[in-house]
Amino acid sequence: MSLRYRALDSPVHRLSPFCKMAWVGSITLISLFFQHPLYLGVFFLATIPAVLAARIWRQWAVIMLFGIFVGANLVFINAVLIHHGSTVLVETTYEIPTLGTPRITLEAIFYGLMMTLRILIVISAFAIFNFTIHPDDQLRAFIQLKLPYKSVLVTSMGTRFAPLLFEDLLRLGDAQRARGQELDRGNLFHRTRKRAALIVPLLANALDRTVQTAEAMESRAFGQGTNRTFLKRLPVTRFDWLTITLAVSPLLWGILTAFVLHYGGFRYYETLDPLGPRNGTEIALLAALPLLSGTLVLLGALKRRWDLD
Amino acid sequence: MIEFRDFTFHYGADPMPALKRINLRIEAGEFVLVSGPSGGGKSSLCRCMNGLIPHFYGGKVSGGVFVDGLDVLRHSPKELAARVGMVFQDPENQLVTLSVEQEIAFGMENLGMPVERIRKRLEEALDTVGIAHLRHRPLAELSGGEKQKVAVAAVLALHPAVLILDEPTSELDPKGAEEVLSIVQRLNDELGLTVVLVEHRMERVAHLMDRVILMDQGEIVADGIPGEILGGDVPERIGVGIPPVTDLARRLIAKGATCGKIPLTVKEGRALVLSYLKNGCRPAPPQSPPSGAVGAPVIETAKLWFVYPSGTTALRDVSITFAEGEFVTIMGRNGSGKSTLVKHFNGLLKPTRGSVRIRGRDTSKATAAELARTVGFVFQNPNDHLFADTVEEEIALVLKNLAFPREAIHRKVEEMLETFRLTEYRRRYPRYLSGGQRQRVALASVLACEPKVLVLDEPTRGMDYGLKRDLLNHLEAYRRRGNTVILVTHDVETAARHADRVVLMSEGRIVADGPRREVLSRALLFSPQINRLVRAFERHGFPQDILTPGELMEALP
Questions:
Q1: Residue A201's closest chain B neighbor by CA?
Q2: Which terminus of chain B, N or C, has less C-beta within 10 A?
Q3: In whole angstroms, what is the distance from residue B164 CA to residue B162 CA?
């Protein structure tokens, strides 16, 4: 399963990179505005139509598994370290140094779960971004947004060199195995210690690569003058402006809902607030968000690819 | 076009100059080959031509370098970029962007060229190098040869007057190398581009050149037309290889033959042999093939299949046996399955189907570390073997991993240091050693535990003649002790000289397996220069399985 961008002709791929950047930014920001599990759940659901329409659900599922792994750790750590909450599930009398008396509460577990959901929203949004925008278009979009060119290029080169470094790491591991080192045996501590020996040669190889790349860039006038030109620019048509506006609308919706109408707050400690919506207005507000995302996908389905080519 | 005036350069505080009093003039339109042993100053010389020395590397400089009228000491590489293009050794590390078009446009964009001009030059560069069909492909999907062509196109788009190529083919297979070199030759022929090429494999390039410069220890030790330089005694003295046909010519001259022009190609070599035969000589009767006496089997694969997790089937039904005391080379195109096959011999890869047995032991039931005592594995890049802080610790590493007693470790380390002439470097950091010394450390670090089989995965790629000769001498000595050598290589001349047996692979299958004379003679691509030469003399009664100049000399009276 390759986690690289694949060129597909889907409604989401057809949308302008600027539109998808605006949408990802909006969803990420509003997931930080709200504490309410219902809202977070709706934001997560709002990313699903784009995943399905883009036909990237396999890659998305792999990334989500990683998110769930991170989340499971987060839930565990939160449950062990946070002793607040009135619904005690497990409590002991003995004391663990630095951790105190173990006391696991429903509220702490629930809070960990909601943090996990927030992480999954962000990961899901960025998965859509990475799997539906060509890396070159990402680079161009950032440059057109006036981000410093050198910083953007370095980020893009990082994308290029990461798989090479990974290959280096595998090869160095093989070289060690071939010389009698049992890298895959022993407990976690021993395995980690043995693998740590690969870091120095890996860094040395990476430095060699860096010098060679710097030489090649220098030889092709990198950093010469300030009037750099760009072969390709991403066009922004009226249609794109329409989709960009629609993509920003979740952010506007979030500002209105959270800061003007004061919906979406939720208390986890000492006792969980009720989970259900407060009134009809809140239900309508919650229903609006998936509709906005769905409309965006629908517009993508109507858009032809010619303006990107 | 390029002029060095009494130029000397030291890297940093190094008291030894990397370049010593260089005086050199290269005219516009010349095709110049720069060769010499590793560390001789070839790459430094090239880096002076586009200003990387001294602007990028720093150091102590005296004298001057002038390129197309510009003083390199006063103009940075960025300023020189539009006049001097440089293509480097490793295609991976010189590409900056993610796609072909973007890569070619990169330099022009940096120079602030108008977009219309970039578009025009992009098209020209794509067509000139013949990679228009790759224009929309991501760079990550291209082969090494294709990437190197993109690098040439990216430089060419800047319309330089000088093209410098620093070992551009050392990472490529023969086909990729030939394609890149033919493009460079065309650029020199048709566009009149001045080309400076650094290369070790003389048989690939000598015939393309107007001039050869040989360097050793920072100095130019020979400079002239290829035939004269390669036919002289300097190459042998400083450790530079010469094409086998040139070697043959030297031997014939020593035997009294007259030769107007030293041959550099098979065609020229044929003419020389023909004139020698016309002088009344007749070939000796065909040689009898060498006996194929070998010992007991050490590696046996049976109906071996291997499929990578990506779904690529790399090996298909491979059944092969290697015996004690054999020197076997495995050859084939990139992606033919050579490396995948040999990684099964020490358990780095496990069969998807079928079996691999090392001295009767099933590798699927053993780890690579457990098999290390029996099968040593040398990777292409010696740096991949260097983990420790000193040379002696590096050699001791494998012995400690395999739980040798302390006394034995001490004894073996001393023995290896002496055998591989590393005693004086025993406390040096291995990565600070020269290329040849690092190769010796890598070999010593594998051979310390006395494996019965030694597998080497393209160890000679990018290696100069002297280092290659050194390595092969070590391998011969190792084999003479009754051990088995399995060498993966693209170098057909090495196979012709050293192998007992040659295995040819294609698309994951073994397509030929036999004594070297059988496999390497009468082949189109995988045959050495001398074998291609003797084919024209079949009617003269020449044996058709002659592979090396020495064998041909024996066949001639």
A1: B387
A2: C
A3: 6
A270's tokens:
């000492």
- Amino acid, single-letter form, for residue B305: W
Cβ atoms of B87 and B177 closer than 8 Å: no
Tokens of B21: 């009093």
Instruction: Give the full edge-to-edge strand order of the sheet including B297-307.
Output: B313-323, B297-307, B353-358, B361-362
Q: Are the beta carbons of B197 and B168 closer than 8 angstroms?
A: yes
In a 10 Å sphere around its CB, with 0-12 CB exposed, 13-18 middle and 19+ buried, how is residue A284 labelled? exposed
**Portion 113-142 of B in contact with A at CB < 8 A:** 113-115, 118-119, 122, 139-140
Size of interface A-B (CB pairs under 8 A): 171
pLDDT, greater one: B48 or A98: B48
Q: Helix (H, G, I), strand (E, B), or coil: what is residue A167?
A: helix
Q: Give residue B160's region: left, alpha or beta (phi > 0; psi -120 to 50).
A: beta
Q: Residue A222 contacts by C-beta under 8 Å, 6 or more apart in sequence?
A: B78, B96, B106, B110
B43 touches chain A (CB under 8 A): no
How confident is residue A308, by pLDDT bands cut at 50, 70 and 90? Answer: very low
Q: What is the token pair recorded at B253?
A: 């001259």
Asked if omega into B283 is within 30° of 0 (cis), the reply is: no
The span from the CA of A162 to the CA of A198, in Å, is 16
Residue B281 in this model has a pLDDT that exceeds 70: no
Strands B19-26 and B2-10, bridge-based pairing? antiparallel
Angle, alpha carbons B150-B156-B157 (nearest 5°): 90
End-to-end Cα, chain A, rounded Å: 28
- Cβ of B431 and A204 within 8 Å? yes
Q: How far apart are CA B316 and CA B134, in angstroms?
A: 30
**What's the complex ipTM?**
0.85
For residue A37, what are the β-bridge partners?
none
HEC per residue, B324-382: CCCEEEEEECCCCCHHHHHHCCCCCCCCCEEEEEECCEEHHHCCHHHHCCCEEEECCCH
Pairing of strands B313-323, B297-307: antiparallel
Q: Which chain B residue shows the shortest CA-CA distance from A176?
A: B385
Short-list B466, B550, B490, B473, CA closest to B214: B466
**Closest alpha carbon to A67 in A28, A115, A123, A4:** A123
Per-residue confidence at B172, pLDDT binned at 50, 70, 90?
confident
Strands B162-166 and B194-198, sheet pairing: parallel
Q: Which pLDDT belongs to residue B290?
A: 53
Whether A219 sits inside 8 A of B376 (CB atoms) is no
State how far the Cα of B280 lies from the Cα of B272, in Å rounded to an integer: 14
Angstrom distance (rounded) from CA A16 to CA A244 = 8
